[in-house]
Write a structure and sequence with these properties.
136 residues; alpha+beta; 2 domains; three-stranded antiparallel beta sheet; globular; mRNA 5'-UTR binding; Flagellum_FlbT
């Protein structure tokens, strides 16, 4: 897999943080767990239930040494997050997230959670547990 980084951009690989000092392309020659800087959520941005869940799954990916502890937090937070939503798209997405995390695929779980951010934003903006329905 080839990854292109801009000068100053960071990448998290197997728990290590690397920063490019200039534009660079790197090739990963074996399986590695990585997260690009633009997909890293800062703690101060974990302001909604899905963003908090994302932050915990991100911790599993970024810090493999503490993954067991983060997985315990994930299980509790996941259950609370599922209970907080009645929107079918979010609930189904969260079921998928649990399956992916359980299968050791946190990177894929992060992609699913990110895809649910717009739905969550619409729910929050509407002040209800379900997203507004659109007229046909």
């Amino acid at each position: 897999m080839h990854l292109s980084l801009r000068a100053g951009e960071r990448i998290f690989i197997n728990g290590a943080v690397l920063r490019a000092d200039r534009k660079v392309t790197i090739e990963l020659l074996n399986d590695a767990t990585f997260l690009l800087e633009n997909h890293v959520l800062q703690v101060e941005d974990a302001t909604t239930p899905l963003r908090q869940l994302y932050f915990v799954v991100q911790a599993v990916l970024i810090d493999p040494a503490s993954a067991d502890r983060a997985l315990g937090v994930f299980r509790d937070l996941h259950a609370a997050t599922v209970a907080a939503f009645s929107n079918e798209e979010v609930v189904n997405g969260l079921r998928n997230v649990a399956d992916l995390v359980g299968a050791g695929r946190p990177f894929d779980a992060l992609k699913v959670i990110r895809s649910l951010f717009p739905v969550e934003a619409a729910i929050i903006q509407g002040g209800a547990k379900t997203a507004p329905t659109q007229a046909a």
